Amino acid sequence: MPELPEVETVKRTLNQLVKGKVIDRVTVNLARIIQRPDDIDQFAFMLAGHRIEGVERRGKFLRILLDGLVLVSHLRMEGRYGVYAGSDPVEKHTHVIFHFNDGTELRYKDVRQFGTMHLFQPGEEFALPPLNKLGLEPLDPEFTPGKFKEALKGKTSKIKAVLLNQAYVVGIGNIYVDESLFRAGIHPEQPANTLTDKQFEALHQAVVATLAESVEVGGSSIKSYVNGQGEMGMFQHRLKIYGRQNEPCVTCGTPIEKTVVGGRGTHYCPVCQTLN
């Protein structure tokens, strides 16, 4: 699933590719992608004639800002956007097409068909699902060690499971949780409420640094992720722990182990990340 760095990268490329374009009409080939409104004809009617003013991100969601509407899009497992000429062949699994009045098209393709789109009046999207219960933004200047600790205060679950919960901190998926915990020297099964102030500070720093570094290189292309221009991310070449089971730890040389935490495959070094 695209995580914060990947969605941030898609946001940036879409701003380059579609900002200022006017939607002439919309084609929906798979109705279940459209969650709000629940009528695809109404969805298409509402969008026709609107201009894209920009694209923003909230957690793993894209907010496509139009003149008078906001389209909230979640890529889920393998959703991707691309801009094409109207004459280009439409690829298989292309479920939604935004036809622009300049002859180009923004196409949403999703092999797994898990992606979603919600249409709102401006500002309304923050009071309703799926954005209304999201936690702190880890790359926001207001994401301080103090606020991070407060968000996790009293949580007795394993720290990895807590970090994966989007109600506390958004956008840190499986890859970046493993990487951040390794950088901070914290075992993924450590109960969140047992972390010391020093560990919270180290983890906060690790989360911010890991996500920022990944954004710099366009995210991680572990499976099928590409940005809006069809380009792969490069952060997978910098991973220190994720996906490296049985390989030597880059710090101490101990073989990296893998377990399951919160239903997700979890990589850690048994020496650098001891369970207290």
TrEMBL record:
What reaction is this protein's catalytic activity?
Hydrolysis of DNA containing ring-opened 7-methylguanine residues, releasing 2,6-diamino-4-hydroxy-5-(N-methyl)formamidopyrimidine; 2'-deoxyribonucleotide-(2'-deoxyribose 5'-phosphate)-2'-deoxyribonucleotide-DNA = a 3'-end 2'-deoxyribonucleotide-(2,3-dehydro-2,3-deoxyribose 5'-phosphate)-DNA + a 5'-end 5'-phospho-2'-deoxyribonucleoside-DNA + H(+)
Its EC number is 3.2.2.23, 4.2.99.18
Relay the cofactor remark from the entry: Binds 1 zinc ion per subunit.
Query: Keywords of this protein's UniProt record, alphabetized?
Result: DNA damage, DNA repair, DNA-binding, Glycosidase, Hydrolase, Lyase, Metal-binding, Multifunctional enzyme, Zinc, Zinc-finger
Question: What positions does the domain Formamidopyrimidine-DNA glycosylase catalytic occupy?
Answer: 2-115
The cofactor(s) it depends on are: Zn(2+)
List, for all copies, the residue spans of the domain called FPG-type: 240-274
What does this protein's UniProt record list under function? Involved in base excision repair of DNA damaged by oxidation or by mutagenic agents. Acts as DNA glycosylase that recognizes and removes damaged bases. Has a preference for oxidized purines, such as 7,8-dihydro-8-oxoguanine (8-oxoG). Has AP (apurinic/apyrimidinic) lyase activity and introduces nicks in the DNA strand. Cleaves the DNA backbone by beta-delta elimination to generate a single-strand break at the site of the removed base with both 3'- and 5'-phosphates.
Name under which the protein is recorded: Formamidopyrimidine-DNA glycosylase
| Species whose genome carries this gene | Paenibacillus cookii
> Lineage of this protein's species?
Bacteria, Bacillati, Bacillota, Bacilli, Bacillales
What gene codes for this chain?
Answer: mutM
